[in-house]
Amino acid sequence: xxxxxxxxxxxxxxxxxxxxxxxxxxxxxxxxxxxxxxxxxxxxxxxxxxxxxxxxxxxxxxxxxxxxxxxxxxxxxxxxxxxxxxxxxxxxxxxxxxxxxxxxxxxxxxxxxxxxxxxxxxxxxxxxxxxxxxxxxxxxxxxxxxxxxxxxxxxxxxxxxxxxxxxxxxxxxxxxxxxxxxxxxxxxxxxxxxxxxxxxxxxxxxxxxxxxxxxxxxxxxxxxxxxxxxxxxxxxx
Length: 237
Hints:
Elements (H helix, E strand, L loop, with lengths): L1 E2 L2 E4 L19 E10 L2 E10 L2 E8 L4 E8 L1 H13 L5 H5 L16 E4 L1 E4 L6 H13 L9 E8 L6 E10 L19 E6 L3 H6 L7 H12 L1 H9 L1
Parallel strand pairs: 5-10
Antiparallel strand pairs: 1-2, 2-11, 3-4, 5-6, 5-8, 6-7, 6-11, 9-10
Keywords: Cytoplasm, Hydrolase, Magnesium
Subcellular location: Cytoplasm
GO biological process, one term: nucleoside phosphate metabolic process
């Protein structure tokens, strides 16, 4: 299905029957409380230990399109609902603490799909390059030679709560590398749609606030527009 130079490979999503429970253990995060002194003042800070992560600005050279992923993000949905409740209450603090009282009818799950770079966490004994190569294969269906996966930049994410390292890569693909339909690892419960945006439509896409985007995608697309050519020239020297 093609519309305005954008291609969506969409699958059916039937999302319902939400329940909230207390988090006691998790494979992915570990909360902690840190106490320390800053000059003479005692401070307390809550944080979460999580895995480093990687993502990739994936460019299809023939279709001249950046390949993105689109998926349902449950925590975005929860926050949308809490924000909706808060807008109707005088005491926002109390509303945000009442996650068990969420009215699930206030927003449709379809509103909590986000557009992102192909990405994943580094939870295996593999290099960053090997990790993103695997994610590109699982999520987008392309087998990219690891030597053609180029590091763009590393930075810290969620600095108020997580602070772990995130690394963005750049890679180019064409149909000769296509080995599958992508869509994520179903054994890990992933349901991912592919979304292509032509390079000439990126600025319009960035300004479209109806499509929810995390900061990593915003940075990646801005890098593609303004730094990619310089990056490619420098890498060839």
